[in-house]
Amino acid sequence: MREVHMLAQIVITSDLRYFLTQYNAKRIRQGDKPLTLRQVARETGIALSTLTGLTTNRAQGIQFETLSTLCSYFNCLPSDILRYTPDEE
């Protein structure tokens, strides 16, 4: 009999909403206006629908180029805006 191994599902979700909230709190403390998704979209060239999908966790994935652009824009690491949750078996 052949053994079938089930691969654990990798669950990676976006923490962009939380990250942006923390980022804006820091901006406000420094006397700057908070960033809107529309402003981030305009300044990065990332579609507003893509950013909205990432902040609502409706996105099914993220392009490496998009991730790289966000990390460059916010001067952060991918782990600051993405969260890995191990599959519970």
Automatic annotation (TrEMBL):
Reading the lineage from the top rank, the first entry is: Bacteria
The molecular function GO annotations come to: DNA binding
**HTH cro/C1-type domain: from which residue to which, for each copy?**
35-81
Report the Pfam families cross-referenced here.
Answer: HTH_26
What InterPro entries does the entry give? Answer: Cro/C1-type_HTH (IPR001387), Lambda_DNA-bd_dom_sf (IPR010982)
In terms of CDD domains, this protein maps to:
HTH_XRE
Query: Can you say what this protein is called?
Result: HTH cro/C1-type domain-containing protein
Traced from the root, the source organism's taxonomic lineage reads: Bacteria, Bacillati, Chloroflexota, Chloroflexia, Chloroflexales
